[in-house]
Amino acid sequence: SNPHSRAQDVTGEASIMAWVRVTSDPVADQPLFGFWNQTTDSGSSYFCIYNRRTSFGPADVLQADVRVGGSLAAVSYSSRLAVGEWHHVAVTHDSSFMTRLYIDGVEVATSQRSGPISSATTYLVKERAGWVDNMRSYNVALTAEQVAYLMDQPV
Questions:
Q1: Which residues of the chain, if any, have pLDDT below 50?
Q2: Which residue from 13, 115, 129, 151 has the highest number of Cβ atoms inside 10 Å of its Cβ?
């Protein structure tokens, strides 16, 4: 069991964000933070962020996974986070089923989905791929302006 996990329903609109510092160059999937159906990332991902995701989608990218209707969909940025640098990373999913990925308060990728995030008991998990700080989750899809503003606000 992960001491940094907590249950939360992410069905419908949702946003997650955190400051992340990757501490090693990944050789495989590198989960950073998000929601899984277990208290570790060994379960199914529902709404989460990976650095250099290789088993689903292109390699060497920052990727947000969203489980919609039982299938996993992804939105990817063209490169992964550099080792040793702090970046603010956020992903939102809104009522029009648009998923948006942000780095340092700037929208870098979007993808239209076919429905809401699948319903399941999920757990917010901070992972071992580096340092995660100021992690937040919301049951609304934040706007670009809200993501940029909240990035510099203390919890």
A1: 1-6
A2: 129
Strand pairing partners for 112?
98
In tens, the pLDDT along 88-112 reads: 999 998 888 889 999 999 999 998 8
Exposed/middle/buried for residue 103 (C-beta within 10 Å: 0-12, 13-18, 19+)? middle
Q: What are phi and psi for residue 124, nearest 5 degrees?
A: -75, 125
> 22 CB contacts (<8 Å, ≥6 apart)?
30, 32, 51, 80, 81, 82, 83, 84, 85, 129, 130
Amino acid at 85: E
Q: Nearest Cα to 29, choosing from 8, 52, 47? A: 52
Return the residue matching tokens 């590198």: 30
Contact 52, 26 (CB under 8 A): yes
144 in helix, strand or coil? helix
Q: Which two tokens stand for residue 36?
A: 């899984």
